[in-house]
């Protein structure tokens, strides 16, 4: 029997891009990637689980930081080649730099300007 | 002199993924891709301009439908490998299927279910 996972148009690396949006505020927290296994695990466990392209492994977001993302909904687009998930962000910090979200760099007058403050030092997030 | 465009970590196809969010409502409208040229054109013209991977060409969103996206802000993430743009969506229709946005398919009980109504038939959008 065909699985809902078969409907996704996985890219040449067998991944799909994922937009991660915070429930309620609708703030975009991250842009990440999922493999088939990570999407299935995300759906079954309710915890956002990504594919790390740099480390080449499954990665339960929050596993080392405590900043889990509890998934409220999973949507796909008209081409089934991108996902949008809405999450509850544990600890209010989604970015590994210690910021609320990853999109803290804004294009202003031909320059990239950082606009969000660091809420917690990365060394304090990961040294536990 | 280095350009702000050089800071982006373009992928192996020289593209970057783009999250398109509506200003005000914060609704995610689309997930798209930009080349260096399309990002530069987007910034200079103020109209969202993407790279069509299927047609392999630059594509000013709204050129054939009238549903332009007027860009309010451009942000990048901590790795400079994804963009988030906020836009004013002309005509209230972002999806080529005639829906408000592209993420109208939701995962419910192991099935993908369409949840958004068609506001305008695609033939009525593109036959002008």
CATH class of chain A: Alpha Beta
- Residue share in β-strands of chain A: 35-45%
Kindly name the structural category of chain A: mainly beta
Determine the CATH topology of chain A.
Answer: Ubiquitin-like (UB roll)
| Shape, per Cα inertia axes of chain A | globular
Low-confidence runs of chain A: none
Give the helix/strand layout:
Two copies of one chain form a homodimer.
Chain A lengths: L14 E8 L5 E8 H10 L3 E4 L4 E4 L8 E8 L6 E7 L15 E4 L2 E4 L7 H5 L2
Structure description:
2 copies of one chain form a homodimer. Helices cover 12% and strands 37% of the residues of chain A. By secondary structure, chain A is mainly β. Chain A has one domain: Roll (Ubiquitin-like (UB roll)). In chain A, the strands form 3 sheets. Chain A has a 4-stranded mixed sheet, covered by helices on one side. The longest helix of chain A is centred in the N-terminal third of the chain and has 10 residues, at 36-45. The mean pLDDT of chain A is 95. Chain A binds chain B through residues 3-4, 7, 17, 19, 21, 26-28, 30-31, 43, 73-82, 84, 95-97, 99, 102-107, 110-112, and chain B through 3-4, 7, 17, 19, 21, 26-28, 30-31, 43, 73-82, 84, 95-97, 99, 102-107, 110-112. Strand 5 of chain A pairs antiparallel with strand 7 (105-108) of chain B.
Q: What is the compact description of this entry?
A:
Two copies of one chain form a homodimer. Chain A contains two helices and eight strands. Chain A has 128 residues and is mainly beta.
Q: Top keywords for this entry?
A:
homodimer; 128 residues; mainly beta; Ubiquitin-like (UB roll); four-stranded mixed beta sheet; two-stranded antiparallel sheet; 8 strands; 12% helix; globular
């Amino acid at each position: 029997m065909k699985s809902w996972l078969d409907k996704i148009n996985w890219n040449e690396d067998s991944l799909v891009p994922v937009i991660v949006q915070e429930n309620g505020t609708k703030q975009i927290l991250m842009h990440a990637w999922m493999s088939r296994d990570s999407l299935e695990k995300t759906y079954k466990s309710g915890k956002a689980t990504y594919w790390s392209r740099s480390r080449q492994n499954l990665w339960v977001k929050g596993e080392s930081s405590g900043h889990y993302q509890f998934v409220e909904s999973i949507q796909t687009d008209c081409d089934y080649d991108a996902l949008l998930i809405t999450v509850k962000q544990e600890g209010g910090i989604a970015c590994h730099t210690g910021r609320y979200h990853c999109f803290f760099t804004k294009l202003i007058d031909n320059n990239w300007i950082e606009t969000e403050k660091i809420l917690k030092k990365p060394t304090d997030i990961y040294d536990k």
